[in-house]
Amino acid sequence: MTKPRVLVTRRVPEAAQVILRTACEVHTWDHEEEPMPQDELVRALRESDGALIVGMHRIDGPLMDEAPRCRVYANMAVGYDNIDVAAATARGVLITNTPGVLTETTADLAFGLMIAAARRLYEGQRIILEGRWKGWSPMFMTGQDVYGATLGIIGAGRIGQAVARRARGFDMRILYHNRRPDPAFEAEVGASYRQLDDLLREADFVVVLVPLTPETRGLIGARELALMKPTAVLVNAARGPVVDERALYAALRDRRIWAAGLDVFDEEPVSPDHPLLSLPNVTAVPHIGSASVRTRTRMAELAAENLVAALTGRQPPTPVNPEVLRQWRKERWP
Ligand code: DGY
């Protein structure tokens, strides 16, 4: 029997390639940093039964129509705002993602950004490198305390809850805002539910971890930033468009909030000339929330497992639109 043909849109760890090769003929865009050009992607998808999507390729209805042979898109990320899932479901195309395996690593980064922004770590390194360190003085480089402060988590899903567990070790008061209260989470870490505005008013650290959807785009704008304390720190480890960058720039420039820690941007890669990066109270990293060797390897493996399972008639571990599997079962699977 001929093996299904799959496309991998960027170099991935060998462990994932091994999983794919057990059942598939594998074609890889074998580059670490250079993204696959769009025309190349479309051409390769047309000849593929499935694809392991690495990076933020936009997978929408017109693209799926260009490549009708491709029935599975396995996204190597937990977020799938790059994929039009409704369009996929309407076409009987399966989408999978990689939840769970990146939770703790991403929570580490979000917590690290809280500390880095509050204690001015990046600014401090720049002061040393630029020869501006004149010596110790009482209020030199003073920041905000993390220990004992109030944390406000917007989007306390898997990663937000992992941030909350870390916050307990820092004796923080934990507030959260979700669409609905989560009594089990509250019992586990002693968190309290707040409406969004109340959370913004009360928190010393606001950590944004919601998925990007039409409802969350621009969730934190000028009005919301104006509710925050002048000593508060904002961390965005979700997706850039959840926070209005222009409004954030103005709030940070005018010191209406203390600092921001950013892992994500409206446009990625962000330009080094971006106004936000000119501010001393911004700590920025290049979308590395899940970037540990172990976690990125596990994400690639899980994406490969999803792809192989879907293409060989088994249940993929983490489908995004499982209704497509039910549809397939009716049509093709005994
Ligand atoms: C994710 O998994 O969604 C990370 O942000 C990587 O894109």
What tags apply to this protein structure?
Rossmann fold; 2 domains; five-stranded parallel β-sheet; binds (2R)-2,3-dihydroxypropanoic acid; seven-stranded parallel β-sheet; 334 residues; globular; alpha/beta; 37% helix; 12 strands
The CATH topology assignment of the largest domain is: Rossmann fold
Kindly report the spatial arrangement of strands forming the biggest sheet.
8-7-6-9-10-11-12
Bound molecules: (2R)-2,3-dihydroxypropanoic acid
Low-confidence stretches: none
The beta-strand count equals 12
Mean pLDDT, nearest integer?
Answer: 97
CATH architecture label of the largest domain = 3-Layer(aba) Sandwich
Level-1 CATH class name of the largest domain = Alpha Beta
Main β-sheet: number of strands, strand sense, barrel status?
7 strands, parallel
Q: Please trace the helix and strand order, writing H or E for each element.
A: EHEHEHEHEHHEHEHEHEHEHEEHH
Domain unit count: 2
Rg estimate, integer Å: 22 Å
- Helix/strand/pairing category: alpha/beta
| Portion in helices | 25-40%
End-to-end C-alpha gap = 18 Å
What is the 3D shape? globular
In terms of DSSP E residues, the strand content is 5-15%
Structure characterization notes:
This protein has 334 residues and is α/β, with parallel strands linked by helices. The chain folds into two domains: 5-101 and 293-332, Rossmann fold (3-Layer(aba) Sandwich), CATH 3.40.50; 103-284, Rossmann fold, CATH 3.40.50. Helices cover 37% and strands 14% of the residues. The protein has 13 helices and twelve strands. The protein has helices spanning 14-23, 38-46, 61-66, 85-90, 103-118, 121-129, 158-169, 183-189, 196-202, 222-227, 245-253, 293-311, 323-331; strands at residues 5-8, 25-28, 50-53, 72-75, 94-96, 150-154, 173-177, 192-193, 205-208, 233-236, 259-262, 282-284. The strands form two sheets. It has a seven-stranded parallel β-sheet with strand order 8-7-6-9-10-11-12, with helices on both faces. The chain has a five-stranded parallel β-sheet with strand order 2-1-3-4-5. The longest helix is centred in the C-terminal third of the chain and has 19 residues, at 293-311. The radius of gyration is 22 Å and the shape is globular.
